Amino acid sequence: MTTKPKRTTWHYTPPLPLNPSPYFQWPLNIKSIGAWVVKGWFPITERMIILGLATVASLFFQPSVAESETLALGWVVTVYARNLALMSLVAGGLHWYFYTAKKQGNERRYDARAFATANRTFTFRSQVHDNMFWTLASGVTVWTAYEVLMVWCLANGYAPQLSLPEHTLWLIVLILLIPMWESTHFFLIHRLIHSTKLYQRVHALHHRNTNVGPWSGLSMHPVEHVIYLSTILIHFVVPSTPFLLAFHLMYFTLSAATTHTGFQGIVRGGKVILPLGTFHHQLHHRYVTCNYGGLEMPIDLWTGSFHDGSDESHQAFLQKRKNQR
Ligand SMILES: [Zn+2]
Ligand SMILES: [Zn+2]
Question: What is the Å distance from ligand 2's center to 52 Cα?
């Protein structure tokens, strides 16, 4: 009798198989859709925290529309410093919690291997220093450049403005749609990058990380930052406000850190109280040619690149990879 070899390479896996969102399951199950949306936002989630940070940032560290009509060093530097502080707070805070202070040891950690040091693959020969450098030097700079461009265009009427308070409901709808948009946009640009020369020249920098930590999320080549954060250009069509622009960009940048923690989340008393880090994307970092998008939009499932983490799915993935060679 032959027994199927078990994969024991993960230190921890969440309940498998992974399931994409129920938005496109037929017949529509309103209860599951409602539960998915509630779980994605409430009570304490990375989305709520980013929404809170965007609110504080917009209230205290955002130039007024009148001020941003003219490009001036003062407000541009304020936005840049704010974004640097936010990225350092989120990625640095999570890195400190999980990897410096080791607050929960390896509990719910997907891959227990240590981060690389004395390794030529990485800038400064250190995975963490490499990731910090590309995140802060390139990621935050491109993020700020896009935000400055869009805020300036909004103030000068080159991009449509969502007038408040009469369109508050639209603002809420747009905020709720951002995760679906992120999943779609990420799949499209990521799939494109993987199937062209951009993979070796650009995206390979992100894939230096076969195991990931909070600083890995936005650790990308500058060209990839320009492509990844081009999401914000949709607001040349979809009306926005300075707050929505800030939240939209923070959702893409800060959640890159929160989805790459390498852990399922923050655990208290054996329970995850704050989900962080997606096993779905951890599979992409290890196996590369699967899971190009997120679970919010099941595009990987539709296009045959979905790896649900189960042994069956892994065997099918290995077979497909073998056939493609
Ligand atoms: Zn990644
Ligand atoms: Zn990739």
Answer: 29
DSSP result, 199-264: HHHTGGGGGG-SS--GGGTT---HHHHHHHGGGGGGGGTS-B-HHHHHHHHHHHHHHHHHTTSSBS
Write the pLDDT tens digit of every residue in 156-181.
999 999 999 999 999 999 999 999 99
244 and 197 Cβ atoms separated by less than 8 Å: no
How far, in Å, is the centroid of ligand 1 from the Cα of 249? Answer: 17
- Cα–ligand 1 centroid distance for 251 (angstroms): 15
Instruction: Indicate the pTM of the whole model.
Output: 0.94
Left, alpha or beta for 304 (phi > 0: left; psi -120 to 50: alpha)?
A: left
Pairing of strands 265-268, 271-275: antiparallel
Q: Ligand 2: distance of its center to the CA of 207 in Å?
A: 6
